[in-house]
Fold:
Amino acid sequence: MRAVIVAIGVAFLVSLLCTPIAIKVFARLKAGQPIRSNLGLASNEGKKGTPTMGGVVFILATVIAYVAGHLALTTLPDAQIAQVEPTITALVLLGLMVFSGAVGFIDDFLKVRKRHSGGLNKRGKLAGQILVGAVFGVVALYFPSSMTDASGATTNTETVGSTTLSFIRDIPALEIGKIASVIVIIFVVMAATNGVNLTDGLDGLATGASVMVLAAYALIAFWQYRHWCADPTYTANPENYCYTVRDPLEIALIAGAAAGACVGFLWWNTSPARIFMGDTGALGLGGLIAGMAMSTRTILLLPIIGGLFVIITMSVVIQIISFRTTGKRVFRMSPLQHHFELAGWSEVNIVVRFWIIAGISVAIALGLFYSDFLASMG
Structure:
């Protein structure tokens, strides 16, 4: 727990203190967010030129905090089960965050360079998401752990991902094989990155929702660590009471660090925002959230944990289908947050209420996760 707390604290401070520096640097470089002024959105007024690409800050803060958390791990009495050395799990999770963020950075850079809201074209962005998902999906499924106990015996041969679909745990009846699992991982990465990106339309909205989702995954992963099948000190019946995952403390540390980094960034990103996360941050967070679902074996629980992202994404899908089939729009504008803007809601009002929806979704998901544990004990 100490390592997770250290990572959260370091990430928060790095993000909180470095974001003002990033604001000045990006402003000096004229890396302002292009704003379309013909949409009639009140939230767009006065935002033209606000520095973007702020996701760079909390992505770097997460990586720095991960290193700090590992330094703290070396002092733990149970370091033999904490896996002090960096793991493939960290490579996959941080890789998904960094390289998904890199795709977003290219998009942001092109927007700034062209002084236009259209950056990387849809095919280019889609190709980048598929490539990142495929590369780290393969790594997640083809590199098992070689963790050993004091006697030298291998105690954990799990991979980061699973060839079985999962809800609270792996579902044995839904074994799909490695190739299909890589395809599922690619789909989850695409869904999560686009979901966060679509939610990032109002000051602090995507950042605050991501904090809740990442905090939930930190709690799930730490609970799995405390009830981990590979822990030789855990004496409960492994068939009922433990979780078959790889490196759960590593997952909790990274999730906690990312949540802490987002809280620090939110100080400057909340209304009125002095910096935007841009596609750099939105895609980076989406990639990490996808990795969290994969590594904690909760892929089918992700739509509940990230309920707000699902609702906003579906509003876009519904709008497109309705307009193309009937010529009519269901919403005044999509994504959904802009529908309420045009209905006269203030930006802060929308953000707070959408945060409440995100919090309710997270609470339901955590309730389902814990109820499964209670049921297994019974």
About this structure: The beta strands are 147-148, 154-156, 164-166, 170-175. The radius of gyration is 21 Å.
